[in-house]
Design brief:
The structure is a homodimer of 219-residue chains. The first copy, chain A, is of the alpha/beta class and 219 residues long. In chain A, 42% of the residues lie in helices and 11% in strands. Among the domains of chain A are: 61 residues, Helicase, Ruva Protein, domain 3 (Orthogonal Bundle), CATH 1.10.8; 92 residues, 3-Layer(aba) Sandwich (Dna Topoisomerase Vi A Subunit, Chain: A, domain 2). Chain A is built from nine helices and six strands; from the N terminus they run H-H-H-H-E-E-H-E-H-E-H-E-H-E-H. The termini of chain A are far apart.
Chain lengths: 219, 219
């Protein structure tokens, strides 16, 4: 039995019976983690929907890109000049949590444990992807701090090489001002077993141990 | 340590800081296999693209749905009244391969082993999903066969309960006409090991064994 190698190649470069399908598949496969096969699955799904639904689908993204505004204070996405968090008088404007993007804002908001405001960087320093400090919302953060209205900055970035670099860069930029710079606690996740934890996390969780009475979420 | 159960619920129903983001996430999460988290990842990706690219992204689907036509003969997608396969004079119009959707047409075309034409059903009979014979392109197939222009029908549907039901339904509908109805060969896939094959497949591969000289793809 003989399977020619060009089979595999023709499979990778799928041939479509329609230019329109090809275009739509190409558009979908631009999305992160979506290949040609998944894209085609999405396209076939759309073809089964009625015209109104597909028009709604397409226009949602165009509207999103053209009409979406960012909060003037924290760069969070918002339909108004100030986002809901920044506009809320009950939030502590002197406590700022620095995050990478709006997904992190949503994740922290879901915990209902944070009463301060956010500052969305819009990415992290990553020389490999060509992202430098000037591509991020760092200057506006330094500007806010220099006005003396902020007491504490909580760095809530991923524990990766890029996250650590960004932490360090911002820490250095804010050093001259008289504010506290803290990072979110690193430790064993709730539900995790000690024996499977990596050494650095376990080590940090011992060094940065907390008083037992501070671990109750209801007091 | 105490984690309230409502945490899990609030996480499932994510709160978005913008109506536009919420709409776009809802649209993406209509796609098969896409949840709210993946949808948000796609939305954040689109927000980083420039306006022209996002407009192109959105309009590709609207254009697809509004302008796409189906082949009058085989129901394959096509930009012209007849698809490339049906319009090709070198293809054998008396040999028809019945498939579920255009993905199967593409898969079979990629093998470069089939010289006949197709008939796309647009689905398979699935009472669970509310799909009956009247929802499929069966009548046009019976119509073509009744004209006496077709010699052989090759059924190339999935080996599932639904595929078998559809096979049997079409077989019964075509019984009165003097044509051959065949199905694609079931057997051990090339590269598979015998000991891991299921009993039904292995059993069928022995019953429907082929002459050794017919297994060469180059003659």
């Amino acid at each position: 039995m003989f399977v020619p190698i060009n089979k595999i190649i023709t499979f990778a470069s799928m041939e479509f019976s329609s230019k329109l399908i090809e275009e739509a598949v190409n558009e979908f496969s631009k999305l992160p983690g979506v290949g040609k096969r998944t894209a085609l699955r999405y396209v076939l799904f759309l073809l089964k929907q009625n015209e109104t639904e597909v028009t709604q689908f397409g226009t949602a993204f165009i509207k999103l890109r053209n009409e979406l505004r960012y909060c003037e204070n924290c760069h969070n996405v918002s339909d108004k000049p100030l986002c809901e968090v920044c506009a809320n008088p009950h939030r502590d404007q002197t406590l700022v949590c620095v995050v990478e993007d709006i997904r992190d804002v949503m994740a922290i908001e879901n915990t209902q444990q944070f009463r301060g405001v956010y500052h969305v960087l819009g990415g992290i320093i990553s020389p490999m992807d060509g992202v430098g400090p000037s591509d991020l919302n760092v200057e506006t953060l330094v500007g806010k701090v220099s006005k003396g209205e902020i007491k504490e900055i909580i760095m809530a970035l991923s524990t990766t090489m890029e996250g650590d670099t960004t932490n360090f860069y911002i820490y250095k930029r804010l050093k001259e001002f008289n504010i506290t710079v803290s990072t979110i606690a690193r430790g064993i996740s709730i539900g995790d077993e000690l024996e499977y934890a990596d050494e650095i996390t376990l080590g940090r969780s011992i060094v940065n141990r907390t008083l037992y009475e501070n671990t109750f979420s209801i007091k």
